[in-house]
Predict the structure.
Amino acid sequence: MKDYSVSKPIEVLLVEDDLADVDLTQEALHESKLLLNINTVEDGFKALAYLRCEAPYTAARRPDLILLDLNMPRKNGREVLREIKADDRLKCIPVVVLTTSQAEEDIIESYNLGANCYITKPVGLREFEKVVLCIEAFWFTVVTLPTRETHV
């Protein structure tokens, strides 16, 4: 297993429009022993601008993992996922769809668009925290991620 506890901060991009879910996710991730840098944007347009280092995100760090909500205003998560996975510079960044939808068509479409996993947000606070901690444990202690320097 990879030891991220003593290396550079792990960059996480949280794409979420619900402020309560942003707070819950950040709180759960900050309880970790891992060194995380969590950046948040509230819609798909901002997510793509962030990923492409466009204004006002010209100094944005490339994320090691993207947590993506599907249901957002202006540009939804499906559109963002489609654009990420079609872009040679971005497609190797793992995308975890973290959404309230349990609809089979959303699950299938997300995987068809290249999602690395699909997680339905639980309703309760404790359950939500457990899910976020499981995401963290899996993606940052079990999985080997490409280094930022090896991205195209």
